[in-house]
Design goal:
22 strands; about 400 residues; 6-stranded antiparallel beta sheet; alpha+beta; D-amino Acid Aminotransferase, Chain A, domain 1
Length: about 400
């Protein structure tokens, strides 16, 4: 986190905990929350002041003055840190977040009072990290939620969304789908808050595949799109930081103004050559390449056999994300090799998702995800006094077999 809360009035910044993609499961030790289609935001209050930070640590306080005012009114001088989501609700039901509606606010650092009144943003607080100067992150989720509920954040623009403890995930999923929500997140009731870590204590179950992407170029449109953006050329980040070509998107742009805004943002970023390798002649012909600094989001049907996004649809820019955060996600994950210790305590997987191959180390509830190569896997294991050479293949049936270790990931 790069931003700092000035002097001693506000608590120190906390990197948000991240969920791992997985399948729904239930049980008495789980709670299920709705997954909100917005922008992750940690909120800091103290001494009558409020600061809002994005997931990447960018200060977005001035962009959402209505949320700042609401939190200041509800919490006063109390020193509190909240984790939650900024959302823009639809005007029909007033309860369903619409990411496309939020997009009209994300590029503005100081929106006009008229726009704030016409398109208000709400803050859904789902976790409590500091309360009255005392960190709560080492408390189990159950206790943090109890303390969060007792704060009584029940304002017009700030609320604590429900958590369904011990519920059947299938019933909660049906309820979320009926409300047109993005998905659900399943959390272990006894789990602590792990700042900056992606943990299997939180499992996210999205209903549609979304992928963060880096814009690496664009093509001019034709017909009604003449003179503006026709399609965007996209890339995603590999675990070692390299950008990999991911195809293009030409649908999902809601109006001509959105296309003109994208053209104006991209024009100063023009460069002579492609910032990535691997774009075929079909995609490169007529391309206007740009510096890979702007991040957006698409929905798609996963990945094709040639490692391109299948039928992507543009959802909008993600100013809260950086290019190195656009790691490949989605249900089309293939575990090409799984090796583990005989006692089951350690598991190493070689995983392929779309154009990216990486390693994953699982030890109990801890997950080292997107480890770029076997050498780094070996270094992590040796730090725990585990020899890679002692791990055996773990097939679907679970019986161990000795294996020749891979030396690199292609």
């Amino acid at each position: 986190m790069t931003a700092r809360c000035h002097e001693a009035r506000l608590p120190e910044p906390v990197a948000p905990m991240l969920a791992t993609l997985g399948d729904p499961f239930g049980g008495p030790g789980q709670a299920i929350e709705f997954k909100w289609d917005g922008i992750r935001c940690t909120a800091y209050t103290g001494g009558g002041e409020v600061r809002l930070l994005s997931r990447s640590g960018r200060d977005i306080t001035t962009a959402y003055p209505e949320v700042v005012g609401a939190l200041a009114s509800l919490l006063g001088s109390r020193r509190v840190v909240l984790d939650g989501e900024l959302v823009a609700l639809d005007t029909v039901t007033g309860s369903r977040p619409l990411f496309s509606r939020l997009q009209q606010r994300t590029q503005l650092s100081r929106p006009s009072p008229d726009l704030v009144a016409r398109l208000p943003v709400s803050y859904y607080a789902f976790d409590l990290l500091v309360l009255d100067e005392q960190p709560t992150m080492q408390l189990p989720y159950r206790r943090r939620r109890e303390k969060l509920t007792r704060l009584d954040l029940a304002g017009e623009l700030v609320r604590v969304p429900p958590a369904f403890a011990g519920s059947d995930p299938r019933e909660v999923i049906v309820a979320a789908q009926e409300q047109g929500l993005e998905g659900v997140v399943i959390k272990r009731m006894d789990s602590i808050y792990q700042p900056g870590c992606r943990s299997r204590d939180w499992i996210k179950v999205p209903f549609t595949h979304t992928q963060e992407v880096v814009i690496i170029g664009y093509k001019l449109g034709q017909g009604r799109r003449a003179g503006t953006v026709g399609s965007l050329l996209l890339a995603v980040a590999a675990p070692d930081g390299r950008l990999l070509f991911a195809g293009c998107v030409g649908t999902g742009f809601t109006d001509h103004q959105m296309l003109d805004d994208l053209r104006d943002l991209l024009a100063p970023l023009t460069r002579a050559t492609a910032p990535v390798a691997g774009a075929s002649r079909e995609f490169a012909r007529g391309a206007r390449w740009v510096e890979p600094v702007l991040v957006g989001e698409v929905s798609s049907r996963g990945w094709s056999d040639d490692n391109r996004l299948r039928h992507p649809v543009w959802r909008g820019l993600r100013p809260d994300k950086s290019p190195d955060e656009t790691s490949v996600s989605g249900p089309a994950e293939t575990v090409e090799l799984r090796i583990g210790s005989r006692d089951g305590a350690w598991l190493v997987e070689v995983v392929r998702v779309g154009p990216v191959t990486f390693c994953r180390i699982i030890h109990g509830g801890d997950v080292y995800d997107r480890v770029p190569d076997i050498e780094q896997v070996q270094a992590i294991l040796e730090g725990e006094q585990i020899r890679l050479a002692d791990l055996d293949v773990v097939p679907a049936g679970g019986e161990h077999h000795p294996v020749e270790r891979p030396t690199k990931i292609s």
